[in-house]
Amino acid sequence: MQWMKQIAKTTVLTLIAIAGLTIPTMAAEKDSPSIENPELSEGAELLNRGFQLLLEGLAKEVEPMADKWAEGWAELVERFGDLNAYYPPETLPNGDIIIRRRTPPEVEATPPSETEL
């Protein structure tokens, strides 16, 4: 379950890092003397900063949901084990949904008990 939380957090942080990669590019363009329209440059910088703030806010919102998703996924994996052991879900005419096993679960063989005579 812990690894699922780590994956979700890593994904969010990766999105923030990708957004952060555009900032140095914009800063380099801002310092460049070949900019013909300073208003366009300022607008692009504001859009970039707004996009960064949006992603940071989104990351803060998604993190609790990612934790809940990871917990739910871990519970599902714990309950069903290997999902390859099941056929895809089927919907019956009455609306019930069934999930069939491909092979029956293995039953532990118990030694025959001794009987007193």
From TrEMBL:
Origin, by domain of life? Bacteria
* Stretches for region Disordered: 92-117
Key words of the record: Signal
Q: Which residues form the signal peptide?
A: 1-27
Q: Does the keyword Signal apply?
A: yes
Q: How is this protein named in the record?
A: AAA+ family ATPase
Q: What species does this protein belong to?
A: Aliiroseovarius sediminilitoris
